[in-house]
Amino acid sequence: MSARPRSNSFHYTLRGVVGALTSPTPAGCPVRRAGPARWPRGRAIFLRRDDRVAAYATDTGDFTDAQLEAVQHREGQVYLDVSEKPAPDDFAADLRKLERSAVCAGCDAAGGCAGLFDPSPDEVFARDDAAVEARVAALRGDVLDVGCGHGPYGATLGALAARGDITYVGLDPDAGHITALRARWPWATLRVGAAEALDPAAERFDHALLLRSWNHLADPARVASSLARMLRPGGTLLVVDNVAFGLVRSRRQAARAEAGPAGFEHYRNDGAAEAVATIAPTGLALVERWDVAPSTSNQWWVRWRKG
């Protein structure tokens, strides 16, 4: 799968109501009464809506059963889609994180059950992204942004450039993205090109950024090696990206998404651990790491420094 683009998400669609939740305890759960083995763990999920429990399931072939189970239960990256969009583009507004229901606590079937989930009251995307933006805001010197296409943190980078705190070079393989950014970012030097074609001998930078572009790289080891050589002593490399996630959707939402124009863009769905293993041979020193967990969004990041 690493040789061609893949999906970074999948959806669980509504299959029907299992029954009424007669009490907020395992004994009152209709899934437990019906027998959890009817629904494969990872491929099914249950959502409490008022006093009823609805079953959702996925038929995706883009992920193995083990991967689906890891997304749902180990990493806790399942979300309720509350948008009317073919694909969510503002996660903080479009998605609600789901967490294992307190009803499951103490249930002797919990370890083998697909699980009952409730919407979390916490907004995790903006909260987690604030830590990344704070590190971007602290940059000083010459900055190279690899895979800058959609322009995350543009307001922060633009303010730094306007004050003379940074000089900014953005690189992206999509000419359309670069054209759009040029109209919005007159302060930036923007180039069309593949990250794998970087010439380590051509330029030096104080900081390199891979902001949600790591999993789009065809050869991340090569790119990491080039960036490490392009950094000046004391320079940093910040890598930010997302793991795969599941979306709980109605049949109508799922049909709209499948008919939409979105295509596969990821070559992998690495987390922080995979990025660390890939970057470690460059000789950069790891200074910060944020991993995905059930209490977080699906965004991870790692920061490295050159000695």
Can you put this structure into words, describing what you see?
This protein is of the alpha/beta class and 307 residues long. The chain has 2 domains: 9-122, no CATH class; 125-242 and 268-305, Rossmann fold. 26% of the residues lie in helices and 30% in strands. The protein has 9 helices and 14 strands. The chain has helices spanning 30-34, 65-74, 91-94, 124-137, 154-162, 175-184, 220-230, 251-258, 272-279; strands at residues 9-20, 44-49, 52-57, 78-81, 95-100, 116-119, 141-146, 166-172, 189-192, 205-211, 231-242, 245-249, 285-290, 299-305. The strands form 2 sheets. It has a 7-stranded mixed barrel with strand order 1-3-2-6-5-4-12. It has a 7-stranded mixed β-sheet with strand order 9-8-7-10-11-14-13, with helices on both faces. The model has no long low-confidence stretch (mean pLDDT 94).
Could you tell me the radius of gyration in angstroms?
21 Å
Our count of helices gives 9
Proportion of residues in extended strands:
25-35%
> What is the CATH T-level topology of the largest domain?
Rossmann fold
Question: Could you say which structural class the secondary elements and strand pairing correspond to?
Answer: alpha/beta
The strand count comes to 14
* The level-1 CATH class of the largest domain: Alpha Beta
Mean pLDDT: 94
Looking at CATH, the homologous superfamily of the largest domain is Vaccinia Virus protein VP39
CATH architecture of the largest domain: 3-Layer(aba) Sandwich
Helix content: 25-40%
Task: Put the structure in a nutshell.
With 307 residues, this protein is an alpha/beta fold.
